[in-house]
Amino acid sequence: MPTAVICGAALWFFLRPTPPPQPPTVQISIDDIEDSVLATGKIEALQMVSVGAQASGQIKSLNVALGDSVKKGQLVAEIDSLTQQNALHTAEASLDNTRAQRRSKAAALKQAELAFKRQQRMLAEDASTQETFESAEATLNETKADIAALDAQIRQAAIAVDTAKVNLGYTRISAPIDGTVVGVVVKEGQTVNASQTTPTLIKIAQVDTMTVKAEVSEADVTRVAPGQRVYFTILGEPDRRYDATLRAVKPAPDSIADEDSSSSSSSSSGSSSSSSSSSTSSSSAIYYDGLFDIANPDHKLRISMTAKVTIVLKQVKGALTVPSTVLGEANKDGSYTVQVVGDRGQLSPRRVRVGIDNNVNAEILEGLRAGDRIVAGDTSKVTTAQSNTRPPPPMGF
After folding, report:
1. Inter-helix orientation angle 82-124/130-169, to 10°
2. CA dihedral 118, 122, 127, 131 (to 10 degrees)
3. Bridge-based pairing state of the strands 191-192 and 248-249
4. Which of 241, 285, 373, 380 is the most buried (most CB within 10 A)?
5. Strand partners of residue 211
């Protein structure tokens, strides 16, 4: 090869113009996109009942254990019933005594009626005095009054017997619902006192279906409505997704119960406490519970588990999408201007209209096609002329 050609090629290599750096780009892709609300949820049983004792005494037997399945009406515990049995026997004896007194008075009433009729005939025949007749009449009326009083006592004694039977029934505690024993609070042989509050013996829950309470912030709750699709994951199985439908959104936060109690206490302690409570509540975050149910046939979902909940507001499948960060600021009409990279590297501005934008990806409705590439960074320093600059070919080739 001639020396002049070699030297010319070397000279061109060192003196050739440096092409401007190409800006980073992203390609328009086809993907599913959704607009959603994220919330933290708590899993609860569809129904849970605290089974308590309305009778005081020693727990004679506890017939269930943690995790047992029970049916409605099944005997779960018994309390020593000797005191209640004695109360029932006493009430029954009192009722029998009153009934016996009533029978005695009934016999006396019959005798008083006969005496009154005899005195009535004798007075008409002038065979008796008015005083004797009036005495017989008073005895008759007094006996009738005694019987009426005994009838009232019989009804009262019967009520006492019924009450004693109910109290005796309280010593046998049955399951109020079908479910699973999720908590055992007492032990066999323990003494419970139901004179002031009802002590809890066990907790029964229906866990074949669970309810998820998702805390939706006040900033998002206006966009959330029953009937929307939801899905969630749990910490133990982050790759498994549970799908459900939003059943309801509570109209008030759970804290309203605390506010009612605090307002009543603050009203009794003075106005200064009320203003302090108001400022505290206004500075705290407000959340509204979104409720939905999920089948739990394998009982993997457990009470008080944490759920990462997604409430789907809108979803589009097979949409043209770009990262939200490449859009920049919106124009006055709500559209966006992006720089599209041509086949030869030239840039051309393109106005696009966006649908769903979840701050991660954005749906392109108009202005771009699948496969287009747009500048991903700041295009203010990248001009079309720079993009069109190409190095000349080497001399001699």
Report:
1. 160
2. 80
3. unpaired
4. 373
5. 44, 293
Measured in whole angstroms, how far is the alpha carbon of residue 94 from the centre of its chain? Answer: 51
- Tokens found for residue 122: 């004798």
Q: How confident is the model at residue 247 (pLDDT cuts 50, 70, 90)?
A: very high
Residues 198 and 52: beta-carbon distance below 8 Å: yes
Q: Which are the contacts of 389, defined by CB distance < 8 A and separation ≥ 6?
A: 17, 19, 20
Identify residue 17 by its one-letter amino acid code.
P
Residue pointed to by tokens 């010593």: 171
Distances (CA, A) of 241 to 43, 232, 244, 307: 14, 6, 10, 10
Reported as a single tens digit per residue, the pLDDT across 108-142 is 999 999 988 998 889 888 888 888 888 988 999 99
Residue 55 burial (CB count, 10 A): 21
3-state SS assignment for residue 19: coil
How, if at all, do strands 306-323 and 229-234 pair?
antiparallel
Residue 277 has pLDDT above 90, yes or no: no
**What is the pLDDT, as a whole number, of residue 194?**
86
Give the global pTM: 0.68
